[in-house]
Design goal:
- This is Anthocyanidin 3-O-glucosyltransferase 2.
- Helix 5 (124-131) links the parallel strand 4 and strand 5.
- By secondary structure, this protein is α/β, with parallel strands linked by helices.
- It starts with 6 loop residues before the first strand and ends with a helix.
- The chain contains 19 helices and 13 strands.
- The strands form two sheets. Strands 3-2-1-4-5-6-7 form a seven-stranded parallel sheet, sandwiched between helices.
- The chain binds the ligand [O-]c1cc(O)cc2[o+]c(-c3ccc(O)cc3)c(O[C@@H]3O[C@H](CO)[C@H](O)[C@H](O)[C@H]3O)cc12 and uridine-5'-diphosphate (UDP).
- Uridine-5'-diphosphate binds next to helix 14 and helix 15.
- The ligand [O-]c1cc(O)cc2[o+]c(-c3ccc(O)cc3)c(O[C@@H]3O[C@H](CO)[C@H](O)[C@H](O)[C@H]3O)cc12 binds next to helix 8 and helix 15.
Length: 449
């Protein structure tokens, strides 16, 4: 599948969480299929450095990183508020990207022929209209969560007047009868609805109908009801994932020797733990989690990124040095495809869930924020491919019970069967005549004009 058309695609990346990485992966796929297209990848310097070092994109020289202002004033002293850098970045938009596009056009000598942005960037509709080019938005989370943002007004008006603590289900939205109001991201019907991030999500839901296409890191067969409903509200909905299956297998670095360590273990015998690129559980939860693994004698591979907290586990590691291994970073795609991994203890970030499905590994979820509670509900109640920790936080007893459920109970057997079915559907979607492959061809036509 190759197109020869020339053009210049301006790509706008959200530099927090794991958003820029899947967007760059998609750009790599598009560039390989359309080698005469130039891609200007606009992102903060810090995020560009991270994603371009980790993602080995087709070296055809047509993808160029452009650093945009991150919104942090010179000499700024951070307060330590977790959202501060995000809100500074949001405040500086869209000027940061408008300036970035101007520079990319000047440097390449080519007018922009398509705008490809993270779906968060609702202002891309106006930017694309001013340039007279298509706007393609990429939603890097689950189909269910973008649908929530499309229905924000209806959710707010329907749930209005019910106390914050009244637990309502969204039975008035197609495909969401099992979703609870408390599962929703902050900014939809709870939290500070006037906060910059909440306003961005609200604007996104209003502006997406102007997008020429909404691309998603998912596959149609995962949730036909919601995806069909999205198609009734948007011009074009193109599920072109799971990205980790749709892209050709990449060489990967395994500096900590994870794969050789996994090779020494029996099939479905161990737990893999990772909480994404932003989060680390509290010290109390870390200790509870460690005690549960030790008490159950479950071998574990733990990707633990927070060097300031890892010493909390020193004593635990001394006692369990023959049981488990802690690493600062793992080749997660390859780990989840390894036969020895029997359960993935995760924060329920979408990329992690998508990769666990691709690997056929049931999950124990401990959601923290954003779309993670919603993803945890999908895992436990809709797809039945895992469980959420009791009470929403790691305790020694609750985690031991969850491990027993997955490894020893009949319910765990059912989870493995269910995720095996989803894994098969995901692989069929990216096969030569699969739904995601067909959608990618359509996306390529839109992007290449
Ligand atoms: O990095 C983030 C920082 C922040 O302050 C807020 C968010 O919110 C979301 C989000 C919000 C609402 C929603 O419906 C989905 C996501 C973030 O998205 C992250 O996306 C990942 C997939 O690309 C993954 O699903 C993570 O769990 C989300 O946190 C990031 C940030
Ligand atoms: O040791 C690690 C930790 C994370 N990841 C990758 O980081 C991403 C985490 O994305 P997710 O959406 O789950 O969570 P977020 O980072 O957005 O909270 C996934 O693609 C993982 O494969 C990885 O490769 N190795």
């Amino acid at each position: 599948m190759q197109v020869t058309k020339q053009g210049h695609v301006a790509v706008l990346a959200f530099p927090f969480g794991t958003h820029a990485a899947p967007l760059l992966t998609l750009v790599g796929r598009l560039s390989a299929a359309a080698p005469n297209l130039k891609f200007s990848f606009l992102n903060t310097a810090k995020s560009n450095e991270k994603v371009f070092s980790k993602i080995k994109i087709a070296e055809n020289g047509n993808i160029k990183a452009h650093n945009v202002y991150d919104g942090v004033p010179e000499g700024h002293v951070f307060s330590g508020h977790p959202l501060e850098s995000v809100e500074l970045f949001l405040k500086a938009m869209p000027e940061t990207f408008k300036n970035g596009v101007k520079e990319a056009v000047k440097e390449s000598g080519m007018k922009v022929t398509c705008l490809l942005s993270d779906a968060f960037f609702w202002f891309s509709g106006d930017m694309a209209a001013e340039m007279g080019v298509p706007w393609v938005a990429l939603w890097t989370a689950a189909p269910c969560s973008i649908s929530v943002h499309m229905y924000t007004d209806l959710i707010r008006s329907t749930l209005k007047g019910n106390g914050e603590n009244v637990d309502q289900t969204l039975k008035f939205i197609p495909g969401m009868s099992a979703i609870h109001a408390k599962d929703l991201p902050d900014g939809v019907c709870h939290g500070n609805l006037e906060a910059p991030f909440s306003c961005m999500l609200d604007n996104m839901g209003r502006m997406l109908p102007r997008a020429t296409a909404l691309a998603m890191n998912s596959f149609e067969e995962i949730d036909h009801t919601i995806i069909d409903d999205l198609k009734s509200k948007l011009k074009m909905v193109l599920n072109v994932g799971p990205f980790n299956l749709a892209s050709p297998p990449q060489s990967f670095s395994d500096e900590s020797g994870c794969i050789p360590w996994l090779d020494k273990h029996r099939a479905s015998s161990l737990a893999y733990l990772c909480f994404g690129s932003i989060l680390t559980p509290s010290p109390n939860e870390l200790m509870a989690l460690a005690e549960a693994l030790e008490a159950q004698k479950v071998p574990f591979l733990w990707s633990f990124r927070d060097s300031s907290k890892v010493q909390l586990l020193d004593k635990f590691l001394e006692r369990t040095s023959t049981l488990g291994k802690i690493v600062p970073w793992s080749p997660q795609l390859q780990v989840l495809e390894h036969a020895s991994v029997g359960v993935f203890i995760t924060h329920a970030g979408w990329n992690s869930i998508s990769e666990s499905i691709a690997g056929g590994v049931p999950m124990i979820c401990r959601p923290f924020f954003a779309d993670q509670p919603l993803n945890g509900r999908l895992v436990e109640d809709i797809w039945k491919i895992g469980v959420n920790v009791e009470g929403g936080v790691f305790t020694k007893c609750g985690t031991m019970r969850a491990l027993d459920l997955v490894f020893k109970a009949e319910q765990g057997k059912m989870m493995r069967e269910n995720i095996g079915i989803l894994k098969k559907k995901a692989r069929e979607a990216v096969a030569t005549d699969g739904s995601s492959t067909k959608n990618f061809k359509t996306l390529l036509e839109v992007v290449s004009g």
